[in-house]
Amino acid sequence: MAETRHTKTLIIGSGPAGYTAAVYASRAMLSPILVQGIEPGGQLTTTTEVENWPGDTEVQGPDLMIRMEAHAKAMGCEIIGDIITELDTDARPFVAKGDSGNIYTADAVILATGARAKWLGLDSEEAYKGFGVSACATCDGFFYRGDEIVVVGGGNTAVEEALFLTNFASKVTLIHRRDELRAERILQDRLFNNPKIETLWFHQLDEVLGDDNPKGVTGVRVRHTGTGETRDIPCKGVFIAIGHAPASELVKDKVEMHHGDYVRVEPGTTRTSIPGLFAAGDLTDHIYRQAVTSAGMGCMAALDAERFLAEQGAISETPEPERHDEAVAAGE
Ligand code: FAD
Ligand code: NAP
User: Fold this and answer.
1) Contact 35 CB / ligand 1 (< 6 Å)
2) Structure confidence by residue, pLDDT tens digits, 185-195
3) Is 287 helix (H, G, I), strand (E, B) or coil?
4) 263, 111 Cβ separation under 8 angstroms
5) How would residue 38 be classed by pLDDT, with cut points 50, 70 and 90?
């Protein structure tokens, strides 16, 4: 049955920013509630090895996020599997509606909704999504054992996806619109040294080609960005890896934004243009967009929320959070 829950601090999002905010807010005795959203654990659950999380030379993204969730729980954060569909930023306390029908009211809100994969916006891409077109190699790569695959993009994600897909594919073609990658040098070296990967420079994907019976991709039509010449490349899988856009719909037209749809925070803080509403992670950041920078901002957001609530005189009424050390021990 739908219910209304009140909390001092509502954290929206369960990526590195959200879970880190949860750890700090719990330790500050703000009795936070964290709503996980459609992707519990966030973007790192869509990858395999993470090699730049300090303290772990190599860790699987999904494992790292399970550990972060267990840590937040152990510190006393209540974690709820729900999606926030509306956030009233004029009301005090703030009012958030859950897809479950639950209502969450909060004295402070930490937005940590991160970013989502971008798509090219082609009709044919839309038509074959789930039938050969994907934005997640770790989720769907397994379906293309022994097949030819194309990956579109030139950043870290595209290169990592291309490398990962060589575990399954007979050949991977990386299609990039320029002749220079954005990806880190170490990843580029791995890419260029992989005999299963061919890089097609100065090309754009024009159309996904496919059959309808059974429904599936048969190839892609690509266009040279200089000459306009087109050619078809046969493949069974098409992975779009052209970046991520901030998931800021909940506060669109309500808070100040920058560089399009990124939520603006006061430099050096996580304060948005609305007092009591804080933002952290990829949602705010068009430059770094890393797990560790998101986690850092999650910490800042909890500390900023604590200060805000103290100024409002709201903290003293908060009961001490219950710790659940057994959750950490069990890896829950
Ligand atoms: P996200 O991880 O994007 O999480 C956002 C959260 O918000 C999700 O849990 C989602 O469910 C939730 N949410 C969204 N909308 C709602 C809503 N309406 N209601 C409730 N919840 C909501 N970074 C590195 O440092 N190292 C790497 O090796 C690395 N590899 C990567 C590999 C891939 C394939 C990708 C895509 C990214 C990678 N990154 C890596 C980047 C890193 O994943 C992000 O910088 C980081 O996850 C951002 O954290 P975040 O907490 O801001 O948001
Ligand atoms: P990104 O760095 O923004 O790169 C997007 C790539 O897609 C660019 O090469 C861009 O081309 C291309 N592109 C964009 N729009 C396109 C279009 N319409 N058609 C064709 N190509 C298009 O995105 P990302 O690779 O997803 O990375 C996002 C963030 O996550 C980055 O900060 C990255 O460092 C981080 N990340 C880190 C790791 C890691 O640390 N190992 C792994 C994955 C992601 P141009 O270059 O021409 O602009």
Assistant:
1) yes
2) 999 999 999 99
3) coil
4) yes
5) very high
Q: Which atom of ligand 1 lies nearest, measured to the CA of 249?
A: 18
Q: Are residues 92 and 23 in the same domain?
A: yes
75 and 224 in a single domain? The answer is: no
Tell me, yes or no, if 136 is annotated catalytic.
yes
Number of compact structural domains in the chain: 2
Cα 253 from Cα 51, distance rounded (Å): 37
- Answer yes or no: 77 catalytic: no
Distance 59 CA to ligand 1 centre (A): 16
Q: Which ligand is nearest to the CA of 17?
A: 1
**Among the options 107, 140, 282, 304, which is catalytic?**
140
Note whether 112 and 130 are same-domain residues. Answer: no
Closest CA to 7 of 126, 94, 76: 94
Task: Indicate whether this model's pTM tops 0.85.
Answer: yes
Please tell me the distance between residue 47's alpha carbon and the centre of ligand 1 in angstroms. 10
CATH code assigned at 78 = 3.50.50.60
Average pLDDT of the chain is 94
Domain that holds residue 61: 4-117+244-330
In this structure, the answer to whether residues 133 and 113 fall within a common structural domain is: no
The DSSP bridge partners found for residue 203 are: 224
- DSSP string for 55-82: T-SSEEHHHHHHHHHHHHHHTT-EEE--
Last residue of a domain, one of 191, 209, 240: 240
Mean pLDDT of 76-89: 98
153 lines ligand 2 (CB under 6 A): yes
Residue 200 has pLDDT above 80, yes or no: yes
140 is catalytic: yes
Q: Which of 56, 99, 136, 299 is catalytic?
A: 136
Q: What angle do CA 190, 195, 198 make, to 5 degrees?
A: 85
Q: Are residues 232 and 127 in the same domain?
A: yes
What is the residue whose two structure tokens read 């959200």?
18
